[in-house]
Automatic annotation (TrEMBL):
<feature type="domain" description="Response regulatory">
    <location>
        <begin position="5"/>
        <end position="119"/>
    </location>
</feature>
<dbReference type="InterPro" id="IPR011006">
    <property type="entry name" value="CheY-like_superfamily"/>
</dbReference>
<keyword id="KW-0547">Nucleotide-binding</keyword>
<dbReference type="Pfam" id="PF02518">
    <property type="entry name" value="HATPase_c"/>
</dbReference>
<keyword id="KW-0808">Transferase</keyword>
<keyword id="KW-0067">ATP-binding</keyword>
<dbReference type="InterPro" id="IPR036890">
    <property type="entry name" value="HATPase_C_sf"/>
</dbReference>
<feature type="domain" description="Histidine kinase">
    <location>
        <begin position="151"/>
        <end position="343"/>
    </location>
</feature>
<feature type="modified residue" description="4-aspartylphosphate">
    <location>
        <position position="54"/>
    </location>
</feature>
<keyword id="KW-0418">Kinase</keyword>
<keyword id="KW-0175">Coiled coil</keyword>
<dbReference type="Pfam" id="PF07568">
    <property type="entry name" value="HisKA_2"/>
</dbReference>
<feature type="coiled-coil region">
    <location>
        <begin position="124"/>
        <end position="151"/>
    </location>
</feature>
<keyword id="KW-0597">Phosphoprotein</keyword>
<dbReference type="GO" id="GO:0004673">
    <property type="term" value="F:protein histidine kinase activity"/>
</dbReference>
<dbReference type="InterPro" id="IPR011495">
    <property type="entry name" value="Sig_transdc_His_kin_sub2_dim/P"/>
</dbReference>
<dbReference type="InterPro" id="IPR001789">
    <property type="entry name" value="Sig_transdc_resp-reg_receiver"/>
</dbReference>
Length: 343
């Protein structure tokens, strides 16, 4: 016979014989055991597709047998058989790990019920195995994709670093101050984007960026860029641990770079001064970014300085975050703020 193999554990010899005959007629390959201890030994020695356990047995009763069977590695589904219609026994068996239970009755109806339970349990077991296999395949696929994405981020970061170095070399070769300044601004923008990709390939989460870490590294780079031995630049950061999706992190990084660059260029004409960057949550869904200095401020009749590209970038990046950058007219110096959704 090639049907499912069943181990039937029951201390009643007559029931064991009847169960073996009735279930073999229904296509099952039957093995019987007289006691719970004998059943556990047989289940440990041979692989069965199903096990049926009677509740009332001397010595090791059904619940104790069920517990011992479930301790076996890779045990099959177990159907609990009881002659009592008390719900507490069925509940106790199901809580202990039985796949189903059947109330023992006199006649062929019992074996029909038992066979039907076997088929339902086997079908459910197959579905659970298929689900577990599909989930394992999905986890493996996700792991491969995350590894691939990490490698892509690594290569993008390296490529951006190379482009940044080339722009820096080109800037040092120029004699026109305006052209050199434009290339240096471009280099800082590239670095802001590259910093995101560096965060991604060193993180287990490739879908979002820890803004506390990202802005910390970005502010450090900007401080190094704008500082000289004669004029060190004081840049400070106060950031809460907020995670943003990658595209939103890039937009915010570019905005911070532009605002800090403007402050370093124009806030303190006579020397170094502090530039402060702050990021905090307003509530679960909204964050607030602030970049401020205590410098000379922006005169009302001031003419635009530079090419205006930085202002356009700030506006474009803010639009991608569905927000705008606002300036506080009451602040001494310049205070730019931005409120946006975390996602």
């Amino acid at each position: 016979m090639s049907g499912p193999s069943v181990l039937y554990i029951d201390d009643d010899a007559g029931i064991r014989r009847l169960a073996a005959r009735a279930l073999e007629r229904r296509g099952y390959r039957m093995t019987v055991a007289e006691t719970g201890a004998e059943g556990v030994v047989k289940a440990a020695a041979e692989r069965f597709d199903l096990i049926a356990v009677d509740h009332y047995m001397p010595g090791m009763d059904g619940l104790e047998t069920l517990e011992a069977l479930r301790r076996l590695p890779d045990h099959p589904p177990i159907v609990y058989v009881t002659g009592s219609e008390e719900g507490r026994i069925a509940v106790a068996a199901l809580k202990a790990g039985a796949a189903d239970y059947v109330v023992k009755t006199v006649g062929e109806d019992f074996f029909d019920l038992l066979a039907a339970s076997f088929e339902q349990v086997r079908a459910r077991s197959v579905l659970e195995q298929q689900k577990a296999s599909a989930e394992a395949d999905l986890r493996a696929s996700n792991a491969r994709l995350e590894a691939l994405l990490g490698e892509v981020n690594h290569r993008v970061a390296n490529s951006l670093q190379l482009v940044s170095a080339m722009v820096r070399l080109q800037a040092t070769a120029l004699t026109d101050p305006s052209a050199r300044e434009a290339l240096e601004d471009t280099q800082r923008r590239i670095q802001a984007i590259a910093q995101v990709h560096r965060r991604l390939y060193t993180s287990n989460d490739v879908e979002s960026v820890d803004m506390q870490e990202y802005l910390g590294a970005l502010v450090d780079e900007l401080a190094e860029t704008w500082s000289t031995d004669a004029l060190p630049r004081a840049l400070s950061l106060a950031a809460e641990p907020i995670r943003l999706p990658t595209d939103r992190a890039v937009s915010l990084g570019v905005i911070v770079t532009e605002l800090v660059t403007n402050a370093c260029k124009y806030a303190y004409p006579s020397g170094g001064g502090e530039v402060r960057v702050a990021l905090r949550r307003i509530d679960d869904d909204i964050f607030l970014l602030a970049v401020e200095d205590d410098g000379c401020g922006i005169p009302e009749d001031a003419t635009p300085r530079g090419t205006g590209l930085g202002t356009k970038l700030i506006k474009a990046m803010a639009q991608s975050l569905q927000t705008i950058v606002e300036y506080d007219p009451a602040h001494t110096g310049v205070r730019a703020t931005l409120r946006a959704a975390v996602r």
